[in-house]
Amino acid sequence: MAKTVQSARDGTALRTLSSQVFDLIVVGSGAGGAMCAKEAARHGLSVLVLEAGSHHLPGSMNQREGDMLPRLFYDAGGRGTADGAVMILHGRGIGGSTVHNTNLCKRAPDEVLRHWATDFGCATWAPEAIAADYAAVEAELHVSPLTEADVNRNNAIMRRGVERLGWRGGLLAHNRVGCQRSGFCELGCSYNAKENAAKILIPEALRLGAQIFCDVRVQQIRHDGKKVKGVRAVGVREDGRDGDELFVNARAVCVAGSAVLSPALLLHSDVPDPYQLAGRSLRLHPGVAVGGCFADPVEAWKGIPQSYECTEKLSFAPGAADRCWLIPAFAHPGGYAGLQPGFGAAHAQAMRDYPRTAVVAAMLHDDTRGVVSVSRKGQPVVHYALSEPDARSLLRGIHAAAEILLAAGAQEVMVPLARPLLARTVADLAPLLSHRYRPLDPLLTSVHPMGSLPMGPDARRAVVDEGGRHHQLHGLYVADGSVFPTSIGGPPQLTIYTTGRRVARRIAADLRAG
Questions:
Q1: Rounded to an integer, what distance in angstroms lies between the CA atom of residue 27 and that of residue 275?
Q2: CB–CB of 49/278 below 8 Å?
């Protein structure tokens, strides 16, 4: 049994899979998929993991945007909704989005988990019921609180503004060991300091006997309408074109490709969906970044990107006006230039201000339900039209982000509306609250899609049950953020890891029972 990740570009290794029958095929190797695969192997199952992206080792992560974005993100970071109004940053490769995320680790809020338990029938997801799984994941991934030494200038500026306003805020937790505070988390860690799926879970899954292949894209789940049979996949050549076709048999299939790709795969596979639920409840947790220019250098690209949060404007009460999580943000030069408005001299001036700029993002705990459909070639198509209440709440959050920067001493704040709003005082922000949102005004960014294959006991309202088991197709499971019944209003990776752990337990029990 191979003890390393194998590439589908090795045709000899790939062809051996067709003669095997696995207990479980896991589609995707991110937080949910890697955890599910490792735990299933620990339970004694024969496991195959198939990952569409490549295996990028720390030594290949050269901290260059032009090289790393195409390697680590779908569409080189350019994936988005059908109308282009929301950019969706979606990781690909062994480890999925855990390779490029900023390592924030936060449990889903108790209010959200109780909402799932009470209103969606997911009693085993109540805070007290899930606490042990969260604790086990936190221990395995070496989650620890961030310290004062981890607060860079960008985060310190936000904290100063929050404290001057008298708002709620605090340090976050992360899963890093040996961090050099280089600031290149979003391009992969060349220092191998991330305690993520690629570093912790994939090697353990291999040690336990799982087989893991990268550069192989699952195109369809094979089934007879009642029970899964396995998958149909193709190798992915170095130029991105389809390679050899592959059929692999399995007793169970677990889909863990993200809240965008997982529903697309189910739809393209004609998985039974009598109530038309798959892909119909996508949450994007969309955000907008507000920049503030300061007199002194900020150099926000240095250090740990996100160590501090503000929850003053984040309510989980139904219909709440304020539902935004406020968090420091920044971008490397290429990404920053692409997000700056204007042309010529105006754009050049914005780039000259880059070293003196701090950024605060407002991220919406959204109620809007987007839709994932699928093209004839199996590609996901995302539609997301922000509802009016959500738009109002997001604008209030953007206003709060600007207030924080002004309170911290920003000389000028730029709100990236289609016609940028420049403010030197809070009074200058008044037009923001009466602004009428429309697609691309402002441009939204999503890094936390979730909710497109929701869980629950009622097959008329949910695609899978509380353990990730599909209601309509025997042997099919889902283990990613797709299963969340709602947005969680914060970073989802810890809850996705925990989902993978719980789904693996259900799969093992089901297969033992026959």
A1: 24
A2: no
The DSSP letter of residue 474 is B
pLDDT score for 431: 96
d(CA 432, CA 394): 10
Alpha carbon distance 474, 228 (integer Å): 6
**Continuous segment of H or E residues that includes residue 244:** strand 242-255
pLDDT at 13: 77
Q: Which helix (H) or strand (E) holds 456?
A: none
Asked whether the beta carbons of 287 and 445 are under 8 A apart, the reply is yes
Residues 6 or more apart in contact with residue 44 via CB below 8 angstroms: 508
pLDDT at 1: 52
Q: Is the dihedral of CA 114, 507, 105, 368 positive or negative?
A: negative
The answer to whether residues 478 and 468 touch, using CB atoms and an 8 Å cutoff, is yes
Tally Cβ neighbours within 10 Å of residue 44: 13
Q: Are strands 21-27 and 47-50 parallel, antiparallel or unpaired?
A: parallel
* Residues sharing a CB contact under 8 Å with residue 68, sequence separation 6 or more, in sequence order: 61, 62, 100, 187, 188
Please write down the HEC assignment for all residues of 71-101.
HHEHHHHCCECCCCCEEECCECCCCHHHCCC
Query: Would you state the pLDDT for residue 274?
Result: 98
Element (H, E) at 174: strand 173-174
Q: Tell me the one-letter amino acid at 140.
A: E
- Quick one: pLDDT at residue 2? 67
Q: Which stretches in the chain have pLDDT values below 50?
A: none
CATH node for 6-137+192-278+452-513: 3.50.50.60
How high is the pLDDT of residue 196?
98
* pTM beyond 0.70: yes
Q: How far is the first Cα of the chain from the last one, in angstroms, to the nearest whole number?
A: 26
DSSP one-letter code for 473: S
The type of residue at 183 is: G
Structure tokens at 386: 């922000």
Residues 446, 449: Cα–Cα separation, whole Å: 7
**Going by DSSP bridges, is the β-strand pair 228-236/216-223 parallel, antiparallel, or unpaired?**
antiparallel
pLDDT at 403: 98
